């Protein structure tokens, strides 16, 4: 339980544990390791997307915006590192220029984790 920022009332504060966030980050790291650069990129991105969708589907309806942003940033970084190794781009700055975040989602098909908790959009529809 924690106090709400606007009202000061006690609200349930359920969010993914540090262990759960660490497990998905380790899974994404394992799926984008250097030894997998010989596998087609669609297969690598597809396996990362399956893991991200499953994890986000489980934790999406909690107060998990901070955890989602951590996992989203980690997935972007890992895919960018994987692409840098695949295309032999040695410089970080050149990697960010060649593989911007928008490109990771639009061109390569990385699953975009939600920024807003699911319960906010569900209550808006009712």
- Using DSSP, what is the number of strands? 2
Question: Roughly what is the average pLDDT, rounded to an integer?
Answer: 87
Mass-distribution shape: elongated
Beginning-to-end CA distance, first to last residue:
26 Å
Percent helix range: 55-70%
Task: Report the sheet with the most strands, covering strand number, pairing sense and barrel closure.
Answer: 2 strands, antiparallel
CA radius of gyration is 17 Å
Q: Note the run of SSEs as H and E.
A: EEHHHHHH
Strand content: under 5%
The strands making up the biggest β-sheet line up spatially as: 1-2
Structural class: mainly alpha
Low-confidence stretches: none
Number of helical segments with 4 or more residues? 6
Pfam family, one: GIIM
Protein name: Group II intron, maturase-specific domain
Explain what this protein looks like in three dimensions.
The structure is a single chain. This protein has 126 residues and is mainly α. It has a domain at 41-126. The chain is 61% helix and 3% strand. It has helices spanning 18-31, 41-59, 65-87, 92-98, 101-106, 118-125, and strands spanning 2-3, 10-11. Strand 1 and strand 2 (10-11) form a beta hairpin. Helix 1 packs antiparallel against helix 2 and helix 1 packs parallel to helix 3 (65-87). The radius of gyration is 17 Å and the shape is elongated. The chain starts with a strand and ends with a helix. The relative contact order is 0.14.
